[in-house]
């Protein structure tokens, strides 16, 4: 069955380019120029993915993103000419699954869209239980009660900050987490910490994961955006 994508983009030229890239990737696209029309299409149902622009003549795609997230788990990919980190963080915190700043590669957009659809179609992972061993297909498990992460059933030797970072990444596996979001998750209101602090701890996390599972890279860097955990 062909996945259906709702595209909300007020620039006709960009919309044509995006729609063409998505259709080349085997997806069916319905396009709206205005937030009002996109709401009507979304209300009718049947969409597997939303690609939403932020700046629109009659509002913001962030508003629809918030409504979609409150209604369910349909994946959302945000588009915006606003490439500042604060804008990306806001979009992700409102429930977007991914964020792409203009100008972007249509091929990259199509690849991200298909990745979001694959993750949405995957069966949910069973919650970790201390009374039963983790499923062998899931290498990393967060034992929140014990404040530790297990890799292939063995606990990793993590500092408190490393645990919080890895727990945050694991909770949103596959999603790109900005440095600001990771900083807030692991350090809270510690004003002396910076983005560089996150980079340093990610480096030590990578080293510990490589040592425990050689040949496998779990943490990916997304230039100008942040980090993701790949399972």
UniProtKB/TrEMBL annotation:
Transmembrane segments: none annotated. The keyword Magnesium does not apply. Keywords: DNA-binding, Phosphoprotein. GO terms for cellular component: cytosol; protein-DNA complex. Pfam families: Response_reg, Trans_reg_C. Residues 132-231 form the OmpR/PhoB-type domain. Coiled coil: none annotated. One of its GO terms (molecular function) is transcription cis-regulatory region binding. GO terms for biological process: regulation of DNA-templated transcription. Residues 4-117 form the Response regulatory domain. The keyword DNA damage does not apply. Residues 132-231 bind DNA. Residues 124-147 are annotated as: Disordered. This is Response regulator. PANTHER family: REGULATOR OF RPOS (PTHR48111), TRANSCRIPTIONAL REGULATORY PROTEIN CREB (PTHR48111:SF6). CDD domains: REC_OmpR, trans_reg_C. InterPro entries: CheY-like_superfamily (IPR011006), OmpR/PhoB-type_DNA-bd (IPR001867), Sig_transdc_resp-reg_C-effctor (IPR016032), Sig_transdc_resp-reg_receiver (IPR001789), WalR-like (IPR039420), WH-like_DNA-bd_sf (IPR036388). The modification 4-aspartylphosphate is found at residue 53.
């Amino acid at each position: 069955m062909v996945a259906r994508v709702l595209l909300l983009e007020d620039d006709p030229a960009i919309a044509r380019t995006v729609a063409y890239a998505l259709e080349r990737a085997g997806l069916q696209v319905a396009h709206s120029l205005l937030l009002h029309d996109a709401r009507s299409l979304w209300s009718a149902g049947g969409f597997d993915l939303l690609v939403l622009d932020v700046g629109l003549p009659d509002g913001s795609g962030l508003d629809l993103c918030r409504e979609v997230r409150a209604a369910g788990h349909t994946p959302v990919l945000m588009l915006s000419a606003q490439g500042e980190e604060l804008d990306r963080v806001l979009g992700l915190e409102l429930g977007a699954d991914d964020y792409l700043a203009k100008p972007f590669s249509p091929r990259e957009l199509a690849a991200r869209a298909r990745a979001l659809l694959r993750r949405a179609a995957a069966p949910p992972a069973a919650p970790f239980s201390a009374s039963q061993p983790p499923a062998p297909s899931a290498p990393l498990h967060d034992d929140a009660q014990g404040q530790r992460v297990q890799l292939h059933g063995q606990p990793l030797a993590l500092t408190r900050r490393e645990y919080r970072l890895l727990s945050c990444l694991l909770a949103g596996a596959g999603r790109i987490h900005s440095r600001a979001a990771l900083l807030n998750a692991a350090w809270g209101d510690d004003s002396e910490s910076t983005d560089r602090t996150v980079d340093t701890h990610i480096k030590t996390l990578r080293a510990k994961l490589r040592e425990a599972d050689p040949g496998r890279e779990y943490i990916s860097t997304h230039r100008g955006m942040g980090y993701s955990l790949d399972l």
